[in-house]
Design a protein that fits this description.
This protein is an alpha/beta fold and about 400 residues long. It is built from 12 helices and 15 strands. The strands form 4 sheets. A 7-stranded mixed beta sheet has the order 2-10-9-8-7-3-4, with helices on both faces. The termini are far apart.
Length: about 400
């Protein structure tokens, strides 16, 4: 049994998440308040004891770790030459936008969606095109007719897919992704699929790798993998791109070299290999704990904060919470929460689409912190309602 209950102090560790006032409780950025699996920590300690940290090559162990994990956990066989080392999903996505599209091209992103997708498009001089997800009866789905209309525009050359979806927690079905692959092939659109949240799913529910769904999906896709979310290793700056199509792979290999994103580092390669080779039991226990937290939060909100509605999600530790009964500006509401209660959560305005009526809460923390956060949320809602 691994310990997910003990609160580990993170103030004073240069943590982005915990760079807040002593009175504040941060539950915003996608960063878990659990230490890495001891198997990973031990591997990093052993590497550190050598004391020399020069240029690092990728080993067969690194390749084997990715291949083994996706085969074992997700039933997807990856060939070694499909994998390219990258410093992470976000820089990999930005590099794909920069080198696989041309200035002025249109890139489609679903909204609400992860804000870094938007900046990856806009900062590279491409035009961001939103395709709104459909929100009905407390759940999200894709508007395939709208997506096809976006793809059919000859100026559209890329689509950024998020699988499972951040922030809604949807696990996309094989049928949905097969249709995306068909449309992408038909209209000549490259699919960049961010799959870094793939392992944190409800027990009994599994994600499906986009590239595994069909020949069309394999041919059009650049998939972003890595241990950063699953094992809380974002600080190691490590990931991989999986690209079965040799032409796309050669273009991205060149792109990563040009952008300086293709080199492994001493701790990044060791940490990733240790995670994927030895982390199965830790992840299984983490999933049970996180979704126990999510169930606890859903029950608490339903019973104590009925003005809010949680979106049912089968993946990620990020809860997407409907606040439209209180406000049409979630950023304003979240700023109020932080000022009045010290609870720091993410307002949904920056996620596009209907995000202005939602907030995002990170439930990947010891239960005692979650209980504290939910009490602050309840008190904040009461204060919001009483403010006039």
């Amino acid at each position: 049994m691994y310990d997910f209950d003990t609160v580990r102090p993170r103030r004073g560790t240069d943590s982005v998440k915990w760079n807040v006032k002593d009175s504040e409780l941060p539950m915003w950025i996608a960063d878990m308040d659990f230490p890495a699996a001891p198997e990973i920590v031990q591997a990093l300690k052993e590497r550190a004891e050598n004391g020399i940290f020069g240029y690092t090559r990728l080993t067969d162990e690194w390749y084997g770790a990715y291949i083994g994990w996706w085969e074992r956990r997700h039933g997807f066989h990856i060939e070694k030459d499909w994998l390219l080392c990258c410093t992470g999903a976000v820089p990999g996505t930005a590099s794909a936008v920069r080198h696989l599209t041309a200035p002025g091209d249109r890139v489609v992103v679903h909204t609400p969606g992860y804000g870094m997708f938007f900046s990856s498009v806009k900062n590279n001089g491409r035009e961001l095109i939103e395709s709104g997800l459909i929100y009905r009866d407390g759940a999200y789905s894709m508007d395939m007719a709208d997506l096809e209309a976006r793809f059919a525009d000859e100026r559209t050359t890329m689509y950024v897919h998020c699988n499972p979806h951040n922030p809604t927690g949807v696990i996309w079905s094989a049928d949905t992704m097969a249709e995306i692959g068909r449309l992408a092939k038909k209209y000549g659109v490259i699919v960049v699929s961010d799959e870094v949240h793939c392992d944190i799913t409800a027990p009994g529910r599994e994600y499906i790798p986009f590239a595994s769904v069909s020949d069309e999906c394999r041919e059009v896709s650049v998939s972003c993998y890595g241990p950063s979310k699953t094992f809380n290793l974002a600080g190691l700056k490590t990931g991989a791109l999986c690209i079965p199509n040799p032409e796309l792979r050669e273009k991205m290999s060149r792109a990563l070299r040009v952008d300086g994103l293709n080199e492994a580092a001493s701790f990044s390669s060791v940490g990733a290999a240790a995670a994927f080779n030895n982390g199965d039991r830790w992840v299984d226990e983490l999933r049970r704990y996180v979704f126990g937290n999510r169930a606890f939060a859903e029950k608490f909100i339903a019973e104590n904060v009925p003005e809010l509605r949680t979106v049912k999600g089968d993946a990620t530790y990020l809860m997407w919470i409907d606040v439209r009964a209180l406000t049409d500006d979630s950023n304003e509401f979240c700023a109020f929460l932080r000022e009045k209660t010290g609870l720091y959560v993410s307002g949904g305005n920056g996620y596009g689409g209907d995000g202005v009526r939602f907030l995002r809460l990170n439930a990947a923390c010891p239960r005692v912190l979650l209980e504290d956060g939910l009490e602050r949320l309840k008190n904040g809602v009461q204060a919001w309602k009483a403010r006039k």
